[in-house]
Specification:
The complex is a heterodimer of chains A (496) and B (90). Chain A is 41% helix and 12% strand. In chain A, helix 11 links the parallel strand 9 and strand 10. Chain A is of the alpha/beta class and 496 residues long. Chain A is globular, with a radius of gyration of 25 Å. In chain A, 48% of the residues are buried. By secondary structure, chain B is α+β, with helices and mostly antiparallel strands. Chain B has a single domain, classed as Glutaredoxin, CATH 3.40.30. In chain B, a hairpin with a 2-residue loop joins strand 3 and strand 4. Chain B starts with 9 loop residues before the first strand and ends with a helix. The mean pLDDT of chain B is 90. The chains are: A alpha/beta (496), B alpha+beta (90). At the A-B interface, helix 1 and helix 16 of A face helix 1 of B. The complex binds FE2/S2 (inorganic) cluster (FES).
């Protein structure tokens, strides 16, 4: 798709501002001015007035400092007071998404609507086909009675003039599990007992009303603490910034990370164990196994398709294996996972090994705040980089392919038939439910919550196609380097 | 009217430093796809290293794009296309 999005620009600008103030150590003193700087007097307002626009900026900053808008009790409490709390707290908390009610435009309930393109034709297929007799002709045009309409959409399908449109509520439409809905005031609320943290509502809301509660300030504090801070870089990340991966590693060190590890390292362990597990399950006569690396999917299955649970691989995710390896070698390390995913934040919070999560945009904001330009960085020398198969994990289809190839390599006489569920939406949820009832064609089902894989995650910066190309580039370059003679080393991770 | 003007190449440079990339340049690549063939064939697009316009707190004005000699701040797809059309019509 080709588009720019104003809400995205504002969010990223604010993240950079916040990061700059935090790095400078002037957050408490200066944050109350930020809404005024962002929306100066005399500028045309997006909403009813500049005060409303400024209020929305204030709430965005709250979410970016890690607070839940829903928990606000005193509207007069200044941002500086929240900043104080954020800079002294000792733990981050869930839920990880929050709705800015001031920004939510309370879209009208999704419905079908007859436009002026209606010709009032003689055939009147809409009237005749409506199962609820909700359509009548008024002044020569069809009109839908909302009290009767059940939103089946048949009228839209049969109209020869395409005169009937669906007016959706984008967030509700995007949520595959019906976890977001309106309160009596018409504002959206997320039910966190059913939310799977796929982040789709956040990406789709045209008002940018749904936000992540960021841990960026906690990471900045950790970076300034003098402790040993380790970055765990998701394999999707090399596709997200200009310059190449070894340059990004240097950039991360310039930010203050002590060490940088590729999460693909843990993916190699995931491949190994998942291949073993699959062979075992097939030998036991189980019909299929699904992958387990996508946390939005596993959470979704646990809550919404419990009958699928026994078929989910019990192998841990690459993030967890990598984190465990790091903790084992250097128990004093603080671990910051960096990735494009919302659900990983939830997985990290439960894990007990990952301390903080930074998303792609937040990492970008840290770099910009520190004026670190990745393409200008000296490339770090990277020893012992993970396999190409592991580095390909963020690209849809590549996880199952890696496991499949691993099984083939082991020559256990097991036939693997991979199937890919590309993106969690209502349609694909049906397919997954069906898989439990009828034996599916494949015996290894890969499920990715984001269509296209993590390269299309909710906080990505690059277009997915560009990201894939950059990841393949990194794979090519690192394989060439791996094959070239190099110093002997057994260390995992990276040194610069 | 001179015909040669209408064949003049239009050179689009998209800043691809970290700041511009984050602030929206990543979405600008592929912009030629939004143009009709006759115009798309007249433009060339390239990325550039940081143009040094983003420093000192000016990141809010990124991304920067140059269409021949004209500099566009907070460049968006419609803004860049408008400038391309303006120059094409000159
Ligand atoms: S990154 Fe574009 S001007 Fe610096």
């Amino acid at each position: 798709m080709l588009y720019n999005n104003n809400a995205t620009h504002i969010r990223r600008e604010l993240l950079v501002k916040l990061a700059s103030l935090a790095f400078e150590g002037t957050l408490r003193e200066k944050i109350d001015r930020v809404p005024l700087e962002m929306i100066p007097k005399g500028q045309p307002s997006v909403r009813c007035c500049i005060h409303h626009d400024r209020a929305v900026i204030k709430y965005r900053l709250l979410a970016m400092m890690g607070f839940a808008i829903e928990k606000e009790t005193d509207e007069l409490r200044p941002l500086s007071s929240y900043a104080e709390e954020a800079l002294t707290r000792t733990a981050v908390e869930d839920p990880l998404l929050t709705v800015i009610d001031e920004a939510c435009s309370a879209c009208v309930q999704s419905h079908y609507f007859v436009t002026n393109a209606c010709k009032g034709c003689v055939a009147r297929p809409c009237v005749l086909n409506c199962p609820k007799k909700a359509i009548q002709m008024v002044n020569g045009q069809a009109r839908i009675d909302p009290s009767l309409c059940v939103n089946c959409g048949l009228c839209q399908k049969v109209c020869p003039y395409h005169a009937i449109v669906k007016v959706p509520v984008p967030c509700e439409e995007a949520c595959p599990v019906g976890a977001i809905s309106k309160d009596p005031q018409g504002k959206e609320h997320i039910d966190f007992t059913t939310c799977i943290y796929c982040g789709k509502c956040m990406s789709e809301c045209p008002f940018g009303a749904i936000m992540e509660r960021s841990q960026m300030l906690d990471v900045i504090r950790a970076l300034q603490s003098g402790n040993r801070i380790v970055a765990l870089v998701a394999p999707a990340i090399p596709g997200q910034f200009p310059g190449d991966y070894p340059q990004l590693v240097t950039a991360l060190k310039m930010l203050g990370f002590t060490d940088v590890y590729e999460v693909a390292q843990g993916a190699d362990e995931t491949i190994e164990r998942e291949a073993e597990e699959l062979v075992e399950r097939i030998h036991k006569g189980e019909p299929f196994m699904t992958t387990s690396c996508c946390p939005a999917y596993t959470r979704c299955a646990h809550i919404h398709i419990p009958e699928l649970k026994p078929y989910i691989s019990t192998t841990k995710s690459p993030m967890l294996y990598t984190a465990e390896q790091v903790k084992q070698q250097t128990p004093e390390s603080f671990i910051v996972f960096i990735g494009p995913c919302v659900a990983k934040k939830e997985e990290a919070l439960r894990s007990g090994v990952v301390d903080f999560v930074l998303n792609t945009e937040e990492l970008g904001a840290l770099l910009v705040a520190k004026e670190i330009d990745v393409p200008h960085c000296e490339p770090a020398s990277i020893l012992n980089t993970p396999s190409a198969a592991a580095k390909s994990f963020p690209i849809v289809g590549k996880v199952s392919q890696a496991v499949w190839e691993k099984v083939k390599e082991q020559e256990k006489g097991v036939q693997v038939r991979p199937l890919v569920v590309d993106g969690i939406d209502r349609q694909n949820l049906k397919i997954l439910r069906q898989a439990v009832k009828t034996k599916p064609d494949g015996n290894l089902i890969e499920v990715m919550a984001c269509q296209g894989g993590c390269v299309a995650g909710p906080t990505t910066i690059s277009k997915p196609m560009v990201a894939v190309k950059k990841i393949e580039d990194w794979i090519r370059k690192s394989t060439v380097r791996m094959n070239a003679p190099q110093e002997e080393t057994t260390a995992v991770g990276v040194r610069s | 009217m001179e015909r040669s003007n209408h064949d003049r190449k239009i050179h689009v440079v998209i800043c691809s430093g970290t700041t511009c990339y984050l602030m929206g340049a990543a979405e600008l690549f592929g912009i030629e796809k939004a143009l009709e063939e006759s115009l798309a064939s007249r433009i060339s697009i390239e990325g550039s290293p940081c143009m040094n316009l983003c420093k000192g707190g000016s990141y809010g004005k990124a991304p920067f794009v140059k269409v021949n000699d004209t500099l566009i701040a907070t460049a968006t797809v419609p803004k860049v296309i408008e400038e391309i059309r303006r120059q094409a019509a000159m």
